[in-house]
Amino acid sequence: MTDKPRPWPNQAKEARDQAAEAAVRAMRALEPVVSERIITETERLRRESEALIAIQKVLGLLVQMGAPVRWIDL
């Protein structure tokens, strides 16, 4: 007889994977902004917004899994 999977490790794995994917999205969005590549102001703003949203996703996932984040610091 097998034991029922424990929810926390499975949820933590899913959160870890989603956080990694969001971090990659943020990195890819910011790369042209900090490189020597010329981009328009509108494109820069779009990419910075996309990166901010991805970073917020990472933070939210970490908090869900118990990361000690004080909301006042956000």
Explain what the structure shows:
With 74 residues, this protein is mainly alpha-helical. It has one domain (9-67). Helices cover 70% and strands 0% of the residues. It is built from two helices and no strands. α1 (7-34) runs antiparallel to α2 (41-64). The longest helix has 28 residues, at 7-34. It is elongated and about 55 Å long.
Give the SSE layout.
Blueprint (H helix, E strand, L loop, with lengths): L6 H28 L6 H24 L10
Helix pairs in contact: 1-2
Compose a concise summary of this entry.
By secondary structure, the chain is an all-alpha fold. It has two helices and no strands.
Helix content range: over 70%
Number of contiguous helices: 2
Give the total of domains: 1
Number of β-strand runs: 0
Given the C-alpha coordinates, what overall shape results? elongated
Based on CA atoms alone, the radius of gyration comes out at 17 Å
Q: Per DSSP, what share of the residues sits in E-state strands of 2 or more residues?
A: under 5%
